[in-house]
Amino acid sequence: MTDNNASKKRKHASNDESAHWLYDDTPPPLTILNDLDYGTELLPMPPSSQQHSSFNLFPTSRDTALFAISRRRRQQRDRFNAQDREHMTNAFKQDTTIADRLIVPKIHPLLAAKLKRHQIDGVTFMWKQLVGYMHGCILAHTMGLGKTLQTITFITLLCTEIAKKNPVVPRYMMSNRILVLAPLTTISNWMNEFDKWIPQELVQVVGHTYNFADVVSSSSSYAKRAQYLKDWYLGGGVLFMSYEQYRILLTKDSPHQDEMKRYLQDPGPSLLVADEGHRLKSNTSVLALTVSKIRTPARICLTGSPVQNNLDEFYCLVNIVAPSLLPDTQSFIMFYRKPIENIFAESSPSDIYLAKKQLLKLKLLTSDILQRRGPEYLDNDLPAKNEYYIACRMTEDQFTGYLILLDHFRTTGESILISHVALRALCNHPAILRKILVDRNARSGISSQPPTEAGDMDAIVEDELTAFSDLASKMLLECLSNYFARISDIEDPHHSSKVMAIMEIAKGCKRLGEKLIIVSHSILCLDFLEKLLGSRTYQISRIDGTIPQPQRQDIIDNFNDSPNKDIMLLSARAGSLGVNITGASRIILCDSDWNPVHDEQSIGRIYRYGQVKPVFVYRLFQYSAIEDVLMSRKLHKRGLASRVVDNRYFKRQDMKDIQKYYANPVEKEDVPEECDDPVLNDLIKAEPRALISIHRPREVEDEEVIHEHELSPEDVKKAKEEALGMKKAYISDHFPLVASL
């Protein structure tokens, strides 16, 4: 086909959905191929760039497809009378066809030159979902793949087309009011990235950037904040706001409440970007309910981890970008969450089969609105990432204290939160546990963390003092008083094998001239390490929740740029998001909590675009203790995430009995062999008795890919039919919303 002929075909495609499909490698819209209750100009279900070929809902033969198109159109023409067709033609109030809206405009050359192939795919995906199909989407690219840059590129592209008055842009997006909701820790990074990537000639086109944190202070009046939002609402541009600030503005009683709802909900923004969208967590939380009331259907959720602890989080994300696509909450729990979450390789064949069938249907339902890109994209572009699981041997003092704690918790029946915090502290160092209890008793009367439901261990906080009630801390301190008294010089690092390993790794990194990050979920652990390492001439930087947000980026920039800095101490929560520390190439994960994503996010601070050195990750845990069990538990949760978004299930024995988390530790005499990392070889030579084993993570041998052919043809057909029916119902629900905007 000559270029001229191709051009003619393209022009024809803009007025004919089927032709657009034939010449643009785009499957025909479902409204053409299927019996819907509406005409051909209504919303089709989009093709999925991630859809497995065996999952394809569209005919693979061109002749079959054309026949289907012809037959469906005859049926539709016979079914609708003139009045129905006129009503449906005006439903979207758009003067363009779907084919027109699917053609993505050219990206600005300065941005296009910086984008990787998967990032161009991401921008294209967002354009087709929000502009072409006029609903939301989930950009589920793993940490470090540049979701921020992709979003900035899409916003720049959208604003450029709005300025041109391009008719393909939905009218409800023409006001150019863009709201970016994000964790507070990421706002500064968003602002910096906007300044970095927006081409100078497009700054005015995109509009002013507003950081709501600039007017959130004790000296800022509520009226001033309202005026700030009004300026954005009337003038357009990009408004950055934390989730917490958004929730407070729309739920707190004030004279300006109606104004707040007008600016931030209805009509509100024309485009919503929810960074770290998994923060919404529960479909019934105040935050999720508040965000869901935003009027625009143009919603983008960014997340590296659509599933962290359970499928409720995934359900919430989908409900934000595509309300009513999935069934009601109770039905979802019964038919999807329970079968999929409870599946293990040790489960019965019938349970495994049911899980696979429901997983297939869930993937079919959501594949159109979710684009997944995994860590393999980073692996192809960056230097190698080397991960090591380092099992430490408890010292005699740690082992004795651990048995005392277990006996105490079995007797008193303390909450999971209290027992976990205490055991984790002892696994780090006895002095840290003592510090927690002494400081907590000195602050008698402070509010403690409320009890948390089993399975919602995300509530464990880094300020361990809030985990204990007055009574619990007093009883525990009395129980351990003799134990603490028997330990001479309790702050000596030799009382913890893990601390000795940290010291040796830090020494090896300094000798190689490589910067090191040490991550902990415990503020008091960071305090202990800062004092210990600081006494040994290391130049240390630190970021935790106590560091004011405006200061954090300066600390990061100084650490990245200064040749004199050796170590960054990072709290897992404060440093897990929006922090780029590619000046370091080695990272120690000191301890764990129940959510595997926090560890992955910490690793993502150094293993991301911009890293020029091989990365080394050291995961430390005490062998046969709570941390060892946590490691296995987190591997199961990573398996859950994989099978939902990456089509895998995990071989792990379920641990339903909470007492199994607190079994007595056992001894083991293995001594690790040499490995391919000089830093670890020096550690093995210096502290052989502190270690049980050092091993690399197993590859996909613990997982199995779910293939469609493992299901019967009848069940595959039924799953596709049910998924297709639910998509049709979603389409019919979606139309009235979009038509009213």
From TrEMBL:
In the record, what lineage is assigned to the organism producing the protein? Eukaryota, Fungi, Fungi incertae sedis, Mucoromycota, Mucoromycotina
User: What's the domain of life for this entry?
Assistant: Eukaryota
**Descriptive protein name:** Snf2 family helicase atpase
Q: Does the keyword Metal-binding apply?
A: no
Per its UniProt record, what InterPro entries does this chain match?
A: ARIP4-like, Helicase_ATP-bd, Helicase_C-like, P-loop_NTPase, SNF2-like_sf, SNF2/RAD54-like_C, SNF2_N
What SUPFAM superfamilies does the record point to? P-loop containing nucleoside triphosphate hydrolases (SSF52540)
Q: Name one GO cellular component term.
A: nucleus
Q: Where is the composition biased (Basic and acidic residues)?
A: 13-23
Any idea where the Helicase C-terminal domain is?
504-656
Keywords (A to Z) from UniProt = ATP-binding, DNA-binding, Helicase, Hydrolase, Nucleotide-binding, Nucleus
Q: Give one Pfam hit by family name.
A: Helicase_C
Query: What protein family is recorded?
Result: Belongs to the SNF2/RAD54 helicase family.
Intracellular or extracellular location(s): Nucleus
What the entry lists under PANTHER family is as follows: HELICASE ARIP4 (PTHR45797:SF1), RAD54-LIKE (PTHR45797)
Asked whether the keyword Endoplasmic reticulum is assigned, the reply is no
Region: Disordered, residue numbers: 1-24
Specify the Helicase ATP-binding domain's residue ranges: 128-324
UniProt-recorded Gene Ontology molecular function terms: ATP binding; ATP hydrolysis activity; DNA binding; helicase activity
